[in-house]
Amino acid sequence: MKRALLSGNEAVALGAWCAGVRVAAAYPGTPSTEILEELARYPDVYCEWSPNEKVAMEVGIGSCLGGARTLVAMKHVGLNVAADPWMTLPYIGVNAGLVLAVADDPGMHSSQNEQDSRYYARMAKVPMLEPADSSECFEMIRAALELSERHDTPVMLRLETRISHSRTVVEYREERRTVDLPYEKDAVKRVMIPGHARLRHPVVIERLGDLQRESESSPFNRVEMRSTRIGIVASGVCYQYAREAFPEASLLKLGFVYPLPEKMLHEFASHFRRLYVVEEMEPWIEESLKAMGIDVVGKARIPRDGELDPDVVARSLSELMEMDTGVRGGGWSPPAPRGTPPDQSVLPSRPPVMCPGCPHRGLFYALRRNKAVVSSDIGCYTLSVLPPLSGIDCQVCMGAGVGMALGLEKAFASSEANAGKAGKVVGVLGDSTFIHGGITGLIDMVYNRTLSTIVILDNRTTAMTGFQDHPGTGRTLMGEETFALDLAELARAVGVESVRVVDPWDLAETEAAVAEEIAAPRTSVIISRRSCVLRERQEGFPYRVNEEKCDACKRCLRLGCPALVMRDEAAVIDEDLCVGCSLCAQVCGRDAIEGVGGYA
Amino acid sequence: MPDVVLAGVGGQGNVLSARLLAETALRMGYDVKTSEVHGMAQRGGSVVCMVRWGEKVCSPLVPEGRADFLLAFELLEGMRYLRYLSGEGTAIVNLYRLDPLPVLRGDAEYPPNAREVIRSYAARVLELEARAMAAEAGNPRAAGSVLLGVLSTCLDFPDDVWREAMVAVVPSKAVEVNLRAFSAGVAFGRRGD
Ligand code: SF4
Ligand code: SF4
User: Fold this and answer.
1) Which of A93, A572, B91, B92 shows a CA-CA span of 20 to 30 A to B127?
2) Whole-angstrom Cα distance, residue A477 to residue A511?
3) Domain check: are A195 and A73 in the same one?
């Protein structure tokens, strides 16, 4: 037996390898990204970054039908993209097991919304397991694959940030057993024309009953009986919070969460006046228990937004538990601090920012100078929304900047209230997200004769999630050289008249290109191309401010470079942080910023 | 059951320091849990990591007011996460200031009294120029190992276990520098100022 401290994501990867997964596909997304990165380190597993989550799911479906145990991974919003194949997959079933590992992000550490993936399990009538630590991540992946094969259904493994990105102890044997099942044609089962689908839906419904019986006896659902005065139902990391907040309480820990073990829950409930449900985000368990006629307290006390911790759980419930137990605070003892900690709200915030020398900075500076209306999607460049660049007007999801630009333009075009704006619309997105979800929008723009400009911020990587390769980088997840998709050629091929490539470290060139393309009455694409500075150290020398010349006009501050500060009537550059992009020198009107090592 | 909160700025390396501390506790035979921050929060944003160990650990998150140690990689971040420190807690503070964006653009003032606030709240404060000490050891980015060196003098993990963990967790080309930085922290901790 080995003993190691693994993140939940690492444990899923290790478990998948041990359980014989032969094919795995994903699109990177925090907090799920490291699952595939880790799995790709093991031998004998085909791992790929797919262009988006829908393709990843489709690759997974093909592979499980082809007889290989399969893992598909994504973040919660990725499942929206993959929802189409996901909803029909349970009808056709699997051959070898397929597990979808999907990671939610309560508190939105790195996400645009706080949606709760558990509804996707219920909506698709797919069983769902939820681990409470890395050790369960490791065990559950095998159990999920076996469940998948036993019931001929995909299985969801639901993770979240504090499971995926917490390290906990895992004891394991590093042994791999593979599964290799024959492929046989079965069109009635696997071709979902309406006539076949009508035959399959009842199978899916009946399967739910079988799964429900498994849930009742699953070792992942267990009762920890302690005080008979407080009964709590919880799953995942919330189980850990509840355990810590109320050590004396009895707990029903759910691990096989859908379908719920109804008998077990009724039996547990019979010991208590009422049950408490501790869950993050939506009242998913709570609503189910209420539908079963069990009296529960949940979201009436526990916040529905943000993430929980033992402290929040304790403070939310202690008053009611005091009533139930007669014990002060229900048994929770709040810590006694030494004084009053500093008021959070008056401290300057520290939002994430684009790195010093980030290639996106010059482009957003140029957009601002051109007073563009900017629709965006998601990547490091979204950080330009903050002042001073204030570079983005609207943003919802991957690839959306393109379609939204089109819509904005069409609305402005027939508007008096917004006269003049139609010609100012620019959609921005990244190289990876252009491939993920932007290309179809671009085809729409050409097809429907749009005049707006699309900027592809091509930094040669998927930076925000930690520098993953994609179809444009010429390298695969498994480290092989491959064809590198040429975004400029692609844009030309779909009919974009004007496609040009600029270097965003050259402000004059970039500003001119933006001004021209915004003004030109045609669909145009500007590819703003330079490698991410974190990914590839650039050959620059730090810049320095000549105090004699600097008159503190603060123009350079409009770039929002974290290496550049105003101190006592002159700008100062932190030479440790500066990567020598020269943008500040280009912006300065008094030639007060000079390259230290003669960078040209 | 010691709880440690490591507060800093994305890019300062507190994720690695948290791993190193956790790996050391694991090698001592404890149950260990950590929580880390990845993704967007790493682009120069405020980053907090937590490490807990003991016979059995439940939550990977430390509740407010319970941490025994706060490792502040930067003054303002030390202030921000001070609320996690318990009434008897020790703050190990890198005397280093990194201006956040609102301060850079002149919309907010960097708290001038950060040191005093931390001193008045924590039961015990160890302040040091960890960045400069790390620079002397070979790389200013190894400041986290200096802070861990100081922390090690407050814990009872043998030196060689720290060193083994270092070799296991830190990328091999950075091990030497980090070991030297760690020793500098140990020396500072032992001097007891
Ligand atoms: S990681 Fe790269 S793309 Fe992202 S902000 Fe930093 S330099 Fe820019
Ligand atoms: S050259 Fe100027 S803008 Fe570029 S990284 Fe250095 S300080 Fe920042």
Assistant:
1) A572
2) 35
3) yes
Distance from CA of B161 to the nearest CA of A (A): 15
* Chain B touched by A459 (CB under 8 Å): no
Search chain A and give the residue with CA nearest B8: A350
**Sequence spans of domains, chain B:** 3-191
> For the whole model, what pTM was predicted?
0.95
Pairing mode, strands A155-160 and A570-573: unpaired
Q: What tokens were used for A397? A: 């999801």
**Cross-chain Cβ contact A349/B99 below 8 Å:** no
Q: Please report where in the chains the tokens 């280009």 appear, as a residue.
A: A586
Q: What is the pLDDT of residues A34-78, one digit of tens each?
A: 999 999 999 999 999 999 999 999 999 999 999 999 999 999 999
- The pocket around ligand 2, CB under 6 angstroms, is made up of A 356-357, 543, 559, 561, 563-564, 573, 578-584
Secondary element (H or E) of residue A140 = helix A134-151
Extract the tokens encoding A62: 């093909």
More confident residue, A534 or B147: B147
CATH superfamily, region B3-191? Pyruvate-ferredoxin oxidoreductase, PFOR, domain III (3.40.920.10)
With CB atoms and an 8 Å threshold, state whether B82 touches A244: no
Q: Is there a contact between A243 and B83 if contact means CB atoms under 8 Å apart?
A: no
A534 lines ligand 1 (CB under 6 A): yes
Strand A373-376 and strand A425-430: the pairing is parallel
Q: Both A123 and A146 in a single domain?
A: yes
Q: Does A237 touch chain B (CB under 8 A)?
A: yes
Residue A525 and residue A332 in contact, taking contact as beta carbons nearer than 8 Å: no
In chain A, residues 316-345 whose CB comes closer than 8 Å to chain B = 334-339, 341-342, 344
CA distances from A161 to A103, A143, B166 (A): 7, 22, 26
Taking the C-alpha atoms of residue B121 and residue B4, their distance in angstroms, rounded to an integer, is: 16
Cα A99 from Cα A93, distance rounded (Å): 12
Those residues with Cβ within 8 angstroms of residue A138's Cβ, 6 or more apart along the chain or in another chain: A6, A11, A12, A14, A15, A18, A170, A172
In this predicted structure, the answer to whether residue A382 has a pLDDT above a threshold of 80 is yes
Closest approach of chain B CAs to the CA of A464, in angstroms?
6
CATH number at residue A404: 3.40.50.970
Q: What is the largest CA-CA distance in chain B?
A: 49
